[in-house]
Amino acid sequence: MSRRERKKEETRSTIIGCALELFKSKGFQETSMEEIAEQSDVSKGTLYNYFPDKESILVGYFQSITAGYGEDIKKALTGNQDLKFKLNSLLDFKKGLMGSDVKLTAIYLRYRMQTLFNSDPFSNPNRSGLENVVLEIIKDAQVNNELRSDIPSIILARTFMLLAVNYFISNIEAKEPFEMDTLKNQLIELFLDGAKL
């Protein structure tokens, strides 16, 4: 990575870090882009070059924490475990990442749902890459005859990702932890019973 690229990445990380501090202390709605620029010690123009709005800063935050663990989750999900175990592990992993701040996660998920069709998450280089982990799990399951192969793997992966979004949205509203375990198992069973041989 060149010096210029490192500087850009440092600026991006500083903006995300300062914005998160403001979101948590003041609230997301109450924080302005001007305050984020001031706290980050960058001009408003520079801030808008990196992030067009507050929601995109949240996206950057969740992408960075997911990408940071991307290789770990890939390693954990390769091996001889069955498909159900891998899907369970994937949902647990994502819940762990997103569960640290329920309010910000809710804003992030709402924004992601509004922009869901702006690009294909499986080919978008600005995504965290977790979608491609799901795609690889699905492809492996088809090769191992755990899932039917007459449905394209990308369609099955998108279907599972939509079920996962349902799980995370429900997670925000859950009153008891056992409710979420039950829901997670039901969603995985729904996916597998509709897709397996």
Radius of gyration from the alpha-carbon trace, in angstroms: 18 Å
Number of helices: 9
Structural class: mainly alpha
- What is the helix fraction of residues, given as a range? over 70%
**Count of all domains:** 2
Distance between the termini: 46 Å
The major sheet is characterized as: none
Order of helices and strands: HHHHHHHHH
CATH architect. name of the largest domain: Orthogonal Bundle
CATH topology of the largest domain: Tetracycline Repressor, domain 2
Task: Explain what this protein looks like in three dimensions.
The chain is mainly alpha-helical. 74% of the residues lie in helices and 0% in strands. The protein contains 9 helices and no strands. The radius of gyration is 18 Å and the shape is globular. The mean pLDDT is 82. Residues 9-69 form the HTH tetR-type domain.
Give a topology summary.
Layout: H1 3-26, H2 33-40, H3 44-50, H4 54-77, H5 83-98, H6 102-114, H7 130-143, H8 153-173, H9 177-195
Helix pairs in contact: 1-2, 1-4, 4-5, 4-6, 5-7, 5-9, 6-8, 7-8, 8-9
List keywords for this structure.
Tetracycline Repressor, domain 2, 2 domains, 9 helices
Short summary:
Residues 9-69 form the HTH tetR-type domain. This protein is an all-alpha fold.
